[in-house]
Every structure is written in C-alpha cells, then in structure tokens.
Amino acid sequence: MSATQQPFGFIGLGQMGQPMAANIAKAGYPLVGFDIAGTQGRLPAGAGSAVDIADLTARAGTVFVSVPDGRASLAVAREIAASPGSVGRVVDLSTIGPTAAREAAELLSGAGVDYADSPVSGGRSGAIAATISLMWAGDRAAFDALLPVLRSFSGNPFHVGDAPGQGQAIKLLNNFLSATAMAATSEAVLFGLSQGLDMGRILEVVNVSSGRNTASADKFPNRVLTGTFDAGFYSSLLAKDVQLYRDQVALAGTPDGVGSVVGELWNACAAAGGPTTDFTHIFTFLRDGTVPKD
Question: What dihedral angle (degrees, nearest 10) is formed by the CA atoms of 191, 197, 200, 206?
Fold first, then answer.
C-alpha cells in the first residue's frame, strides 16, 4: 500500500464505529477520524485526528460515517455538503431508514459527493471481530473498488442494490427479525422455566430443532444463560430500528400484524431501561416487568 495514499475518513467513533475504524487502521489503511463527543482517546493506533468535519474532509477522499440515527447522519451530510474538500464518496454505515438515506444522498449529490447507503449488522462483538455484514446500496463499481477496505472490517460485504434506501430496507427487516426472535425466545424460555425445565437444556434441544434462531443460538447461551447481558447493542436502538421498519411498512402498505406487537413490546422495554441498557434484558423485562437501569 502506498505511503502517499489519501487517508480514509471516519466520522463517529462510538460503540460500533470505534472497532470498525480500528480494523481499517489495523489493515494498514491511512485513516483520519472525528467524533463530536471527543476524538482523542477513541482513535485507533496510527490514525490521525481531525478537529472537526471540515478538517477531515480537507484530508480524506472516502469518508465512512457511523452515527446513531438519521438526525445525526443528516447533520453530517449537511456539513460535508457545505465543505466537501477532497471527499468524493461517503459510505454511511449507520441505521437511519430509507427516507433519511435518500435525503442524505440528495444533499451530497448537490455537492458532487457520491453516497453509499451501507448499514452494518452483527453487533459490537462482530465489529470487533470484523465479521459484521455490510449492505451496500449504491454504485457497483465503487463497491468493487472499495472491497479490500470493506473486507478489513466486514466479513460479509454485500452489494444489495443501486439506490440509496435499499440497504436500509434490508437492515431494517433484518433487525425486525432479530427483535422478534429475541422477544419470542424470551417468552418461550420463560414458559419452559415455569414447567421446571433447565434453561441450558431448553436451548440444547431448541438449537437442534425447528425453533432454532439467532437468539436461541447466540444471545441466550452467551449473554442470558451466563447472566452477563452484554451483547453490545442497546434496547433503545433496537426499539428505534423496529419503529423505523414499521414506518416504512406503513408507507409500503405491507402487513404489520406481527410488527405492531413486537414494536410495542420493544418500546416498553426501552422505556423501562436506560438508553444504554443491553437489548438482551428483554428477558428480564418480560420476567420481572423491570430492567436494570444504566
């Protein structure tokens, strides 16, 4: 890799962004980062620090963005559009919903900056291990050109479509399925416990039977059965994602019978806990009616 290669930029060094940025730097790519909550102490070894977004855009050619929601993503898009500097492409790794993705793409297009709607899935543990999935909706040639750096932090990069919003659609339906599996598995396990069954044995049977799902195979044996409740994703964010999914379902006019029930349940769980309560605490919420506060 050339020592003179233009750095990649990374905006948002939080729960998911920090390990993704670390894996990019670890692979040897030059990187400059910025986080509005404070950049120092969040940067991976060897990465440069930007004082603000304008400073970052003056130095980077491709900018990755990992922020909590559509409001934050659009704020970043507006700042980049106002001062694009040397930036030719923004790769938005955030979960913001199709409407916000299309708005961000339009904002940046007006400034001559290409936008890739590229949310990721796999949680903080997946981000650390570089096994997360990435769902790119945007220019296929750009995706192919960036595959080496994408593979430095994503074990499963997919090109899912050409239009911003399509990546968000897949991410939201995926998170809805994950939310449904976690809630349904919690209810099922609680029923089994009420019958005097052992949680470990319930999981052992289910995971070689037709009820197996991501919650029974991963979250329960590794986070609930152990009592650690540390999957690394917040119930407040999952509730937000389910609501985004339901908003898009309403626009599409597709069925929402299951979604309405799941959405209400996650809203209640998020309200019962704090903003950084792990989403695996849906089990304690259903069991006790309460969630440990932050």
Answer: -60
